[in-house]
Amino acid sequence: MSSYGEIRSVFAVPFGDRVADAARAGVRTVMNIGRAFAHRRELALLGSLNDHMLKDIGIDRSDLRDAASQPLWADPTQILVSRSVERRAAHLLRSRAAARRMPD
User: Fold this and answer.
1) pLDDT attached to residue 82
2) Helix, strand or coil for residue 60?
3) Alpha-carbon separation of residue 31 from 23, 35, 38, 40, 80 (angstroms)
4) pLDDT of residue 61
5) Which DSSP symbol is given to 75?
6) What's the predicted TM-score (pTM) here?
């Protein structure tokens, strides 16, 4: 009788772990899909802004098109953030270089 209990516990634990892992993976997938739709809504909201407003935050229409062309599971806002940071850094470097050229 003790061998039956040992065999049962050996098979039950890995099966339970596999079910729990599958449930966690399913929840992660649903969360990722929800997050992807939220990012797409944010992208659509940015698309409704005019060009002047987009320029204020450091992006333009081509950045929005590039971000929208990403696969559904990719975060399109990462492209927008990197482009905005690149433009701000380039603007800062240009202004520093112009300040150095100006005579005192």
Assistant:
1) 92
2) coil
3) 12, 6, 10, 14, 22
4) 94
5) -
6) 0.64
Tens of pLDDT, residue by residue over 30-52, are 898 888 889 889 999 999 999 99
pLDDT tens string 81-91: 999 999 999 99
Cα–Cα distance, 41 to 57 (Å, whole number): 18
57 Ramachandran zone, left/alpha/beta (phi>0; psi -120 to 50): alpha
Distance (Å) of CA 47 to CA 67, 84, 92, 103: 11, 15, 26, 43
Name, in order, each residue with C-beta under 8 angstroms of 75's C-beta and a sequence gap of 6 or more. 35, 36, 39
Whether pLDDT at 19 is above 90: no
For residues 17 and 62, what is the distance between their CA atoms, to the nearest angstrom?
Answer: 47
Structure tokens at 60: 């333009």
And the tokens for 90?
């380039």
Dist CA 81 CA 78 (whole Å): 5
| DSSP assignment letter at 50 | -
